[in-house]
Design a protein that fits this description.
Layout lengths: L3 H16 L6 H20 L2 E5 L7 H15 L4 E5 L11 H17 L2 E7 L7 H8 L11 E6 L3 H17 L7 E5 L4 E2 L7 E2 L1 H18 L1 H9 L4
Parallel strand pairs: 1-2, 1-3, 3-4, 4-5
Antiparallel strand pairs: 6-7
Helix pairs in contact: 2-8, 3-7
């Protein structure tokens, strides 16, 4: 017959064996770590990127960015933005900061799945700020990425003029054709009292249609599946 002490020891070992944390074999732990790393790479690398040419962030272009971000959120697509107004002047006193800004912009463009150009449609042929931002990017920076053009204010005809003036810059960056263009004029906003402007239903539909045109090309879900597929 077992003593009380021996019986307690057997019970303790039984519970340790049944409820101890599961230890994965080393190869299984390595595979799981690789899959988690691949998933992390997808979520940190795949996003849509806007390059904005507005002189101020609290503007119609800024409110448009919020609207675009909300539409992309519904489609589970991450959205980021680079503001040309943040680009430091290329002067001796700010050259180091300007170089750092340019390098960061180049890196973000390289990782983006699609590019949105957001700028006011002004009487001038093109946005000086947007052009300055695009000029820091290397040749073919937009290659194999759909580019969408969004313009706020002005008249619809100015969008075509804006696109023509950007043509040479876009060709240098690797874009032969703009995938879609959207103009949000004065009638494309809802303004109630002192509330911030909101996109009208028609504007939201037009933006959503332009985004849905490029989503099948980017195919983020298929890209994710290929990324997460374990190596043989």
């Amino acid at each position: 017959m077992l003593s009380s002490w021996q019986l307690n020891q057997l019970i303790r070992r039984f519970y340790q064996h049944c409820f101890a944390p599961t230890e994965w074999p080393s190869r299984e732990r390595e595979r799981h770590s690789i899959e988690n790393s691949a998933s992390l790479r997808f979520f940190t690398m795949s996003y849509f990127l806007a390059l904005t040419g507005s002189t101020i962030k609290v503007s119609k272009s800024g409110f448009l960015l919020r609207g675009i971000g909300s539409i992309l959120e519904q489609r589970t697509v991450e959205f980021r933005a680079i503001h040309a107004s943040d680009l430091p002047p290329n002067e001796p006193a700010t050259r180091r900061i300007a170089t750092q800004f340019a390098n960061d912009a180049i890196d973000q463009v390289a990782r983006a799945s699609a590019i949105f150009l957001v700028t006011p449609a002004t009487k001038e042929s093109t946005s000086t700020l947007l052009t300055a931002l695009l000029d820091v990017l290397p040749d073919n920076a937009f290659a194999r990425k759909p580019v969408l053009l969004f313009a706020t204010g002005g008249l619809p005809g100015q969008v075509a003029i804006l696109e023509r003036t950007l043509r040479q810059i876009l060709l240098r960056l690797g874009t032969k054709t703009v995938a879609a263009r959207v103009h949000i004029g004065t009638g494309g906003w809802l303004i109630v009292g002192d509330d911030r402007p909101r996109l009208s239903r028609g504007s939201e539909r037009e933006i959503a249609h332009a985004i849905d045109l490029v989503l099948p090309v980017v195919k983020p879900n298929e890209s994710r599946q290929r990324t997460l597929q374990p190596a043989p």
